[in-house]
Structure formats: structure tokens, C-alpha cells
TrEMBL record:
Gene3D superfamilies: Aspartate Aminotransferase, domain 1 (3.90.1150.10), Type I PLP-dependent aspartate aminotransferase-like (Major domain) (3.40.640.10)
SUPFAM superfamilies (UniProt xref): PLP-dependent transferases
Signal peptide residue numbers: none
Sorted UniProt keywords: Pyridoxal phosphate, Transferase
Name assigned to this protein: Putative pyridoxal phosphate-dependent acyltransferase
Organism name: Aliicoccus persicus
Gene Ontology molecular function, alphabetical: pyridoxal phosphate binding; transferase activity
Residue stretches making up the Aminotransferase class I/classII large domain: 42-383
Family: Belongs to the class-II pyridoxal-phosphate-dependent aminotransferase family.
Reported cofactor(s): pyridoxal 5'-phosphate
Matching CDD domains: KBL_like
Length: 396
């Protein structure tokens, strides 16, 4: 190995380990359901984005197997050669119907979808106003576009108005976009979309909402934009197919012109092989399941409310979440990591999240209850929380 590379890797890894930032990977044996098996231990799983339990849904598994029989395991090419299967077209029509837009386009992951769409639409003559807590894939998409990036204080509408005015009135940019998560995954709070739309109208901003954590959760399942009835106002709705939908992939939904443009300009659409038949078929079934019934959505919220109430009654600080995402804010980084480790030893898998993902001193154990959890599992988790919380002096 090159000496320079060797020295670089060693110093990087040692630095991360010294700061307690080297993430140990937990390997899950078997399905990622409400209970998971890690290193032989069955644990109550409060750390997965499988909000509706669809990742292990029987019907989705069945249709995925059928799609392998009818279409094979791979799609064979990128979308623009011959990797656009009838299943992809069916999925995109279904997504547009689900999101209440004219059209939609699917990508291989939510991450590459953000990088693709932002880069395709914005360029170095433009500016992007971006909420400071936006997801890493948004940050990378903004960087890739080479537009001027202007960070906006989290959900601070005065800051947004001021920076939008400044950017537009400077005359330095051809286009100005405001981009935000719909639901913020670290705190479970919701973007102030009605106010954002008002400001966007005032300054002719392009609006882009990443609803990775809102789809399936907000708006009776159809997402945060639908929750506020703003389908006609938000220009670009992006989402993942890997969280509530339970499979893998990402999408953009919007006008026919927007989607037509992305199919000629979004680089992963042009240069990366499309979603597999099994995944695509399972996603179609998942979206249809959400469109047919709110049963799973309702169960998710019932479980979220139940866990929140239980943790609050025990005396934990659960922040200001407006969604089932339930942070349990511990504070100091080392204590947060110890808390999560002790939970795991007692039977609950709830991952700690510390700086730099969240600000210093706001370390938390983040809980993601799902529609697939039973009351018994949540009661058991609460019992363990109480035990560990008292043991480590987090609650009295
Ligand atoms: N956007 C947000 C807000 C996310 O939380 C995530 C996933 N962590 C992504 C995009 C990327 O989605 P995916 O995992 O489907 O690539």
C-alpha cells in the first residue's frame, strides 16, 4: 500500500477513535422488525426507520418473489438504455397519484436522489438557502451543484425571510431555492411549510422538501406537504422508499415538466442501473397499501404517543417532537453512549446520537416506535428505560 495512504488512514482512524466518534457496526441476523437479533440477543428494536413495519410485510415479500420470477433479479441497464421496466413506469405513476402531483421519477436511493435532483436544477449562478439541520444528502447535493450555499437557522422564518431578501435583491443569482427536510429526524419536528410557502411566494424562491421521514407518517401517510395541503405550492417533493415504504430507493414528485427534465439531466438516472424488479414491485405494493388504508399509519401514531407518554411520565426529557420520532435527550456525550449501551444489555436497541450529528451537550438516544411494535414490547422497553435511567442518574 502507498505509504501516504497508509499514514492517512491510520491517523484518521486513530483520531476518530480517540474522540469516541468511531462507529462500531452492529450486525443484525434475520429480519429488521420490531425485534432484532444482534450477536445472538433478541432486542426490542427502537432504531429502525421501518415506521410502518412494511420491511417485513408478508404481501410485499410475496410480490417481490413473483417479480423475480417474471422479471429476473436485475434490471440490466440504466434507465435511458433499456433499464426502464414496465414496473418502473407503474411505480412512478403510483407515486404521482400518492403524492398528488402530475408525475414522479424514482431513483436507486434517497441519498442519490437528493444529489441528483439538486445538482440537476441548481448551478453555480444560483443560491440555495438550506436549513442548518438538513440531511447530509441535501448538503452533498448542494455542494455538487456549485451553487452558493446559505445556511438558514433551523426553522427560523425571520432568518429565512432576511436571507431570501438579501439573496434575491443582491441580483447575484439567477435562481434562489429554499430546501428543507419535511420532518427533522433528530428531533421529530416538522418544517413550517405554510410560512415557507408565503416567503417563497414573496421572493419567488424554488421550494424543495425532503420528506424522507414524513412520507407514510404525516398527512395520513401521504407526507408533510399533503398534511398542509400544499401539493400545488411546493415545487419539488422528494422522498425515500427506504423508510416508511420499507424497501429502498428515492423519488421526486412534481410537475410533468420537472420530471421530464430530471430524466434527461439527473446523473444517476442516466448513469446508474435502475431499481431491481423485486424492489420495484414491493414498493408499488407498499404505496398501494398506504393508499388503501390508514391502519398502519394510525397504529404508528398510537404507538408513538404511547411511548412518548411513558417516557415523559418516567421523567425523561423527550424534546419537542411532533411525530412518532421520540428523542430521549441525555446531554453529555459519554453518558449518552453509556445509556444506549446499558439499554442494549438489558434488551432494548436504541442508538445514541451525539455530536457532530447533533449539537454538543444534546446527546440523545433516539427512539423510533413503529406500527409493528406491540404494547407489550413498548411496556417492556419502558421498564428497561426506567431501570437504566435510575441506575445512571438520568431520572430520579
Ligand atoms: N433524506 C433524509 C432526510 C434522510 O434521513 C435520509 C436517510 N437517512 C435520506 C435522505 C437518504 O435516504 P436513503 O437512506 O433512502 O438513501
Amino acid at each position: 500500500m502507498s505509504k501516504i495512504l497508509n499514514d492517512f488512514l491510520t491517523s484518521q482512524l486513530n483520531g476518530l477513535k480517540e474522540q469516541g466518534l468511531y462507529n462500531e457496526i452492529n450486525v443484525v441476523t434475520g429480519p429488521n422488525g420490531p425485534k432484532i437479533n444482534i450477536e445472538g440477543n433478541d432486542l426490542i428494536n427502537l432504531s429502525s426507520n421501518n415506521y410502518l413495519g412494511l420491511a417485513t410485510h408478508e404481501k410485499l415479500k410475496e410480490v417481490a418473489k413473483q417479480a423475480i420470477d417474471s422479471h429476473g433479479v436485475g434490471s440490466g441497464a440504466v434507465r435511458t438504455i433499456n433499464g426502464t421496466l414496465d414496473l418502473h413506469v407503474e411505480l412512478e405513476n403510483k407515486l404521482a397519484e400518492f403524492k398528488g402531483t402530475e408525475a414522479a421519477v424514482a431513483f436507486q436511493s434517497g441519498f442519490n436522489c437528493n444529489m441528483a435532483a439538486i445538482q440537476a436544477i441548481m448551478n453555480k449562478e444560483d443560491a440555495i438557502l438550506s436549513d442548518e439541520l438538513n440531511h447530509a444528502s441535501i448538503i452533498d447535493g448542494c455542494r455538487l451543484s456549485r451553487a452558493k450555499i446559505i445556511r438558514v437557522k433551523h426553522s427560523d422564518m425571520d432568518d429565512l425571510r432576511m436571507k431570501a431578501k438579501e439573496a434575491v435583491e443582491s441580483g447575484n443569482y439567477n435562481k434562489v431555492m429554499y430546501i428543507t427536510d419535511g420532518v427533522f429526524s433528530m428531533d421529530g419536528d416538522v418544517a413550517l411549510l405554510p410560512e415557507i410557502v408565503e416567503i417563497a411566494k414573496e421572493f419567488d424562491l424554488i421550494t424543495y422538501v425532503d420528506d424522507a421521514h414524513g412520507s407514510g407518517v404525516m398527512g395520513k401517510g401521504a407526507g408533510t406537504v399533503k398534511h398542509f395541503g400544499l401539493e400545488k405550492e411546493i415545487d419539488i417533493q422528494m422522498g425515500t422508499l427506504s423508510k416508511a415504504i420499507g424497501v429502498v430507493g428515492g423519488y421526486v414528485a412534481g410537475t410533468q415538466e420537472l420530471i421530464d427534465y430530471l430524466t434527461v439531466a439527473a446523473r444517476p438516472f442516466l448513469f446508474s442501473t435502475s431499481l431491481t424488479p423485486a424492489d420495484t414491485r414491493a414498493i408499488i405494493e407498499a404505496v398501494q397499501t398506504l393508499m388503501d388504508s390508514t391502519e398502519l399509519h394510525d397504529k404508528l401514531w398510537e404507538n408513538g404517543d404511547y411511548l412518548k407518554k411513558g417516557l415523559k411520565e418516567l421523567g425523561f426529557n423527550i424534546g419537542n417532537s411532533e411525530t412518532p420520532i421520540t428523542p430521549c435527550i441525555i446531554g453529555e456525550e459519554k453518558l449518552t453512549q453509556e445509556f444506549s449501551k446499558r439499554l442494549m444489555e438489558e434488551g432494548v436497541y436504541a442508538k445514541s446520537i451525539v455530536f457532530p450529528t447533533v449539537p454538543r451537550g444534546t446527546g440523545r438516544v433516539r427512539n423510533m416506535p413503529t406500527a409493528a411494535h406491540t404494547k407489550e414490547m413498548l411496556d417492556e422497553a419502558l421498564k428497561i428505560y426506567e431501570k437504566v435511567g435510575k441506575e445512571l442518574g438520568v431520572i430520579s
